[in-house]
Design goal:
This protein is mainly α. The protein has a three-stranded parallel β-sheet with strand order 1-2-3. The protein is globular, with a radius of gyration of 16 Å.
Length: 151
């Protein structure tokens, strides 16, 4: 990937995102996964939100996103499950079916990320799984999610 600028911003980040969007084809905003002024501000101008959630907590962000979509109708929001237990598909499948059956919920991505050592090691080393060796399964999971969201 080509180098890209990294900008740090806090509080009402909407203006910074709009400014960056004028200079770039794609702006990726990474923030903490909880309700915050930054999250609410970013949602006012975002086109797409991908919210990672463990299957046990996927419904917590729903009301915040629905409020944001009322103010920003172009906002598409999707949730993806991560740290899924490899041998416990039943819980994930049940939650996926529950969310997918009701448009009042943020719709889940079909693809998901399992709990793999490769993700833990890459985080510890400050790298992506694509920069490491012996991470084919983790790379494949990330690539499937990227294809599904069109990146």
């Amino acid at each position: 990937m080509p180098l890209f600028p990294l900008v740090e911003s806090f509080g009402k980040v909407k203006d910074e995102i709009i400014h960056l969007n004028k200079r770039s084809d794609i702006v990726i905003v990474d923030m903490a996964g909880y309700d915050s002024p930054e999250l609410r501000s970013a949602l006012q101008c975002a086109d797409l939100l991908i919210s990672p959630a463990r299957p046990s907590s996927a419904t917590e962000v729903n009301s915040i996103i629905k409020q944001a979509q009322a103010l920003n109708p172009k906002l598409e929001a999707r949730v993806f499950f991560y740290r899924c237990k490899p041998n416990h598909h039943k819980e994930r499948i049940e939650l996926y079916n529950y969310l997918a059956a009701d448009s009042d919920w943020i719709q889940p991505l079909k693809n998901y990320v399992t709990f793999l050592t490769a993700f833990e090691k890459s985080t510890e080393q400050g790298m992506s799984v694509h920069e490491m060796s012996n991470t084919a399964t983790a790379k494949a999971q990330i690539e499937l999610i990227s294809q599904e969201i069109g990146v």
